[in-house]
Amino acid sequence: MGPNIRRRQAENRSIQTSVQLLLTVSGIAFLVAGLVLAASGASVGGAIGSISDDWSEGEPREGDVDATDDADGAGGGSDDEDGDNDNESDNENDTGSDDENTGDESDDTDDSRDADNDTDTHTLTATVEDDDGDPIDEATVVVEADSGSSEPDSVDDDGEVEFDLADDEYTVIAEADGYEDTEASVEVDGDDESVTLTLEDADDESDDGDGGTETHTLTAIVEDGDGDPIDEATVVVEADSGSSEPDSVDDDGEIEFDLADDDYVIIAEADGYEETEETVEIDGGDETVTLTLEETDD
């Protein structure tokens, strides 16, 4: 062989050796990398498996849910039973209490009836009317006794009102607007009683108080010698009890006075006329008197 051939062979062997060395190193490197990757894969898989296990434990299994529901249902039933038992117990207690209360009320009612039966009452009917016998339907009545007075009670449309009273002596008082109060005594003694109270008109009572009797109308007419009315005249009425104030006549020369039965002097006067007077007696009826005035010489 020539020198060139040997050189080439040496170079080829050197290249083959370098390639083999490179392949060996690469193989080792791949082996190490594989081992590292294998180790890393095991660690990641373990972590993923742990997480999966924890998730599985956190979720209730279907069987567990059903069992829990059944258990809760059973517990609810127990609560319902306890509620029913409590309600039944309360109802029994309430019923017993109501029965006891009813019994107490019944006893009180019996006692009240016994007390009422100890004192018999009777009906007192009070009728309130005016002078003409007509009912005064706006009147009120009070019943007084030694033990006290009743509240004022209004009569009905017939002027009547009733009171339930025990045997005793009573004063019955009636009053109404426009009337004088009236009272009457009545005794309730084992039977119903009635009383009529007649109310006097307040105006009539006032008239009686002023004159002692009813009054009548005196009409005085003032005229001249020709019979014409003197509408500027004034008239005074005198009696033993005193005189009235001078009062002017109207356009017809007339004036009226309400007077009780008595003897009166009627005096009329006017400017330009002589004063004139007349005597008149009021005796149970209205009267009229005419006074004629004579003109003066002036």
UniProtKB/TrEMBL annotation:
InterPro entries: CarboxyPept-like_regulatory. This is Carboxypeptidase regulatory-like domain-containing protein. The keyword Signal does not apply. Residues 112-121 have a biased composition (Basic and acidic residues). It holds the Pfam family CarboxypepD_reg. Keywords: Membrane, Transmembrane, Transmembrane helix. Residues 287-298 have a biased composition (Low complexity). It comes from the Archaea. Residues 65-111, 128-137, 199-211, 274-286 have a biased composition (Acidic residues). The chain crosses the membrane at residues 21-42. Residues 48-159, 199-232, 274-298 are annotated as: Disordered.
